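Suppose you are handed a protein chain with no further information: no name, no annotation, nothing but its sequence. What can you learn? This example shows the usual starting point.
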Amino acid sequence: MSSLLRLATAGSVDDGKSTLVGRLLYDTKSVLADQLDAVTRASVDRGLSTPDLSLLVDGLRSEREQGITIDVAYRYFATPKRSFVLADTPGHVQYTRNTVTGASTAQLAVLLVDARNGVVEQTRRHAAVLALLGVPELVLAVNKIDLVDYDEATFEVIAKEFTDHAVSLGYPLGSVLSIPVSALVGDNVVTRSENTPWYTGPSLLHHLETVPAAPDPHEAPFRFPVQYVIRPRTPEHPDYRGYAGQVASGTVRPGDEVVVLPGGSRTTVERIDTADGSLEEAGSGSSVTVVLADDVDIARGDLIATATNPPRLTDEIEAALCWLATTPLKPGARVLLKHGAKTVQAFVETISARLDEQQLSAVDNPDTLELNDIGRVSIRTAEPLAVDDYGNSHRNGAFLVIDPPSGDTLAAGLIGAPLPAL
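A reasonable first move is to predict its three-dimensional structure. Written in structure tokens, the prediction is:
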């Protein structure tokens, strides 16, 4: 059985992210005939003589009309060696929030730069976001290498600048790889190109097929946010009481001792139910109903966790925050905080630092966080939450900040995460 790799693409506007993804899909024969026919027709309508492979990814009509990526586009493809879930994220600064979404579950990120422009401000911003999210592997795709006549010196300068920047953000040297590519022509995307004899590394696809994947979330401590309490009260099931949700991390089996938070009651797992019958175990990502041995008071938003390594219960949260709204964040703001299946009122006490992602330095005690800023904040919640540090559990260490009147998402937060390079 092949392994699974979750990856994301990022980069500045017009660096060719969607074309690169389209090339991967096309050259690995992961495109259906009707999809290719639709892309060919759309390309002809735009006056092109060859199919525009970026249209395989830019699925929204507004994206196709403007020739840009707006939303995160998820694509699934496979080779004999590995299966892939790929998130193609936007390049525009105002859509950096979508990069956070696409990269939040990625085990590897492909960051593109235009060989004619090199590392730009948005490249550094995206690298900082990827470092903050803890994406463990980085690939710098120096795209449009054909437009600089496959010049080795140009590639080496860009690769060194980016590698130095990534290392400054905390990436180990061995986790950053630079590859010269032409997404339009196909150089070094699926196979090594004869146009770059000076490049001795792998093609992009070969690297994606062979890079070690991040640790399996099944190995993390068991965390299960309760989304719904099932009590049918039917003649067939008069006493049934199950707790439905998705396993956020770890693995659970009948007989495991668990603790229910925030209440603190301890019990054991009696059964794990699904629509297709009971399971002997359920791992991260499994949507199941957990039946407990004892009648415990549990409501939506509570967390069932392993009793041997439980999360901490707190109403004081120190977190790194990526501000995603046009309205600035100021200390004293009253917001809603969504953690797992629970949403509580919260109060932003302080903003202790803001990251300057260009200079890799901290601005202490800023007055505000503006759109796309990354900062360190202290938040007090109206109710205690069962949390982990983001470095120990991505799912249980992350939260969203929501605007109470509108319900709009304002920020993504990572509990206990240090700002990159600080």
